[in-house]
Design goal:
single chain; mainly alpha; about 0% strand
Length: about 550
């Protein structure tokens, strides 16, 4: 005080703190700002109105940096982010009350981004199994406050406070997160906000990324409602209505905010739609293909700068793999897979794209596994994946499941072919072993001996069996030794005793056990627990703990 306080003493310290992160730095910067304001009010310092705004901005930036969510997020972490956001909002309110400073768009956007991080954190917490009602309520309140702040920016007469692309995207994405948490009604708020933004914007057309956010919100809402092509309120139909308006604008007025990612989101809305009946040409999968064709045609005649991207093809493939007519869906999905390969061309060897397209290949394989087509169709797709080095355990598991699919009844050597498929894996997973056992179970009784030998060979190879492994082996014996009850009962009893030793008894295991043993032998084996199992009223915790408490070591033989 004796030497005289200077503005630079405070501004340099606040600026230095703003280059760091952490709540302690944010608290120190906030305290310094309060001291600076106190000295200004007491007349110890002089300031121009514009000098305070950057300092407020630096402090808000620090608090915004404190809203980063941890990886294993829980509700308490979301509430911590809420408290940080409330503190930052109080600083913004203080800034708005002062007459010697200007509240800038930059400061508003920091708070909008804080609210956005609250909604995204709530979404992540819900994915990790946190209470959905609590996370939805937190996200809804944050989105509502974000919208209030945005409306305030829109109503402002100050040019420096008017919203920009960052503001638009933050408020739309906040409500999109609410949709993702299960509130399909929030799509109306998203569309209302989009209308407000379109009316307010002074630009010739808005950024395509905004419309991608809107289309993505509608895609997230699609599985929450039953699909009906005649219901204009269905999320997928709302997406189509918006698309038609944008395409009309594109053809009559010139450039509009429509790109391949918007089409990818619309197609995704159809891929996620749940239809209880086949609507023919208006089925979600057919509409997804129609959107894909439209994107290609608009690009071909020059209306769009880019044609369909990987996600357009991938989402269309997903739509057909979920089609009610499984066989038709398989054929269409495989054709789209060929188109995707042709679209990617020489970049099929690029690792980042391979990881992406492996997901869609696996979808097609899983679809074929449920169809009535020969498993050879799945094998051919798997060989294509192996040539690209993108086959993983899910790919092999889908083909193994196809070999075990009884819809294809004419297969005689399904267990041998399943074994050959498994042997192509470098390190088969337990899920693949279990699926191979299911293929053995589905083998015709004429080839029961070879199927039994393969099943027992596979079981001996498994180092860490799980409850499904034992259930599958019991079902193998029940199915293939149907005509040999003496051997069947001996084998089933041996597997059950191993299951008990390794702590993997499940309700399914007990149900299969009762199917494979005679009443007398079952009563001798289970003793006092016989009535519980026969009545199908099993409570595992009433059984001996060593039966169901899993052991993490290698299996006891």
């Amino acid at each position: 005080y004796h030497q005289g306080l200077k503005w630079e003493n405070f501004s340099c310290l606040i600026e230095a703190l703003s280059s760091r992160k952490g709540r302690n730095n944010a608290k120190m910067a906030t305290e310094l700002l309060k001291q600076l304001i106190l000295h200004l009010d007491e007349g110890l310092l002089e300031s121009k109105r514009s000098n305070l705004a950057p300092l407020y901005g630096n402090v808000l930036k620090l608090w915004y940096s404190c809203t980063v969510a941890p990886q294993r997020i829980k509700v308490k972490d979301v509430l911590n982010i809420v408290r940080v956001t409330e503190t930052a909002t109080e600083i913004l309110e203080d800034m708005k009350r002062r007459k010697d400073t200007i509240t800038t768009r930059h400061s508003y956007n920091f708070i909008l981004s804080c609210y956005l991080r609250v909604t995204l954190a709530a979404q992540d917490a819900q994915k990790r199994g946190e209470d959905n009602d609590i996370t939805l309520k937190i996200a809804t309140i944050a989105a509502e406050k974000s919208e209030e702040l945005f409306v305030e920016m829109v109503a402002s007469l100050n040019e420096n406070q008017r919203p920009n692309l960052t503001s638009y995207k933050a408020v739309l994405t906040s409500w999109s997160s609410v949709v993702s948490l299960g509130d399909w009604r929030a799509t109306d708020r998203v569309l209302e906000l989009l209308s407000t933004i379109e009316e307010y914007s002074y630009e010739s057309y808005l950024d395509a990324r905004l419309y991608s956010v809107v289309f993505n919100a509608l895609a997230q809402a699609a599985p929450l409602l039953e699909f009906n092509p005649k219901d204009s309120g269905a999320p997928a139909n709302k997406a189509v209505s918006l698309l038609r308006r944008l395409v009309q604008t594109l053809k009559t007025e010139g450039p509009c905010p429509l790109d391949a990612m918007s089409y990818a989101s619309i197609i995704n809305a159809f891929a996620k739609s749940k239809a209880s009946e086949n609507f023919g040409e208006l089925a979600p999968a057919n509409l997804a293909s129609a959107c894909l064709r439209q994107c290609y045609e608009l690009h071909k005649i020059g209306y769009l700068r880019e044609g369909p991207n990987d996600f357009c093809y991938g989402n269309a493939i997903a739509a057909w793999t979920r089609h009610l007519d499984i066989d038709q869906g398989c054929v269409k999905a495989e054709a789209l897979l060929d188109q995707l390969e042709a679209h990617i061309g020489s970049e099929l060897k690029v690792r980042s794209r391979q990881q992406r397209i492996a997901i869609w290949y696996n979808m097609v394989l899983s679809s074929f596994a449920r169809s009535s087509f020969s498993p050879e169709r799945g094998e051919s797709i798997l060989r294509r994946m192996e040539a690209l080095a993108i086959a993983d355990h899910r790919s092999y598991q889908a083909v193994l499941a196809h070999w075990g699919n009884r819809k294809y009844e004419t297969m005689e050597n399904r267990s041998e072919r399943a074994l050959l498929c498994l042997r192509r894996m470098e390190r088969p997973s337990i899920a693949c072993y279990n699926t191979a056992l299911a293929a053995c179970k589905a083998t015709d009784l004429k080839h029961a001996d070879s199927a039994l030998a393969i099943a027992e060979q596979l079981f001996a190879e498994i180092q860490l069996p799980n409850a499904a492994t034992y259930s599958r082996m019991i079902s193998v014996y029940n199915s293939l030794l149907e005509d040999n009850p003496t051997t069947r009962e001996t084998k089933v009893e041996e597997i059950f005793q191993l299951c008990c030793k390794n702590g993997h008894v499940s309700i399914l295991t007990l149900n299969l056990l009762s199917n494979g043993l005679s009443d007398a032998r079952l009563k001798t084996l289970l003793g006092e627990y016989y009535d519980m199992v026969v009545d199908r009223n099993v409570d595992l915790h009433k059984l001996p703990e060593q039966w169901w408490k899993r052991k993490r070591s290698k299996k006891i033989s």
